[in-house]
Amino acid sequence: MKEGAEAVVQVMAPPSRFRRICVFCGSSKGNKTSYQDAAVELGEELVARNIDLVYGGGSVGLMGLVSQAVYSGGRHVIGYVNKRP
């Protein structure tokens, strides 16, 4: 959990008008840990704003990190996997 001014901003964030947001990102974690940190932070922010996740359905990489953060926070997670003909 964040401390100081960031914590105040997080608590006072207005409720979102969105109930679900769709996120598609890499199935690889990438070479920079900053990408991984950003994916987890995005998931945590969705939880803080009571937003559910619709995503690319993968359990690995950046998509996996976002979905795990949202699911761990108690929000709904819907994975979309395209079915090839």
From TrEMBL:
Judging by the UniProt lineage, the source's domain of life is Eukaryota
Q: Which GO terms describe its molecular function?
A: hydrolase activity, hydrolyzing N-glycosyl compounds
Which GO CC terms are listed, alphabetically?
cytosol; nucleus
**What residues form the membrane-spanning segments?**
none
Pfam families listed in its UniProt record: LDcluster4 (PF18306)
**Alphabetical list of SUPFAM superfamilies matching this protein:** MCP/YpsA-like (SSF102405)
Please state what the protein is called. Cytokinin riboside 5'-monophosphate phosphoribohydrolase
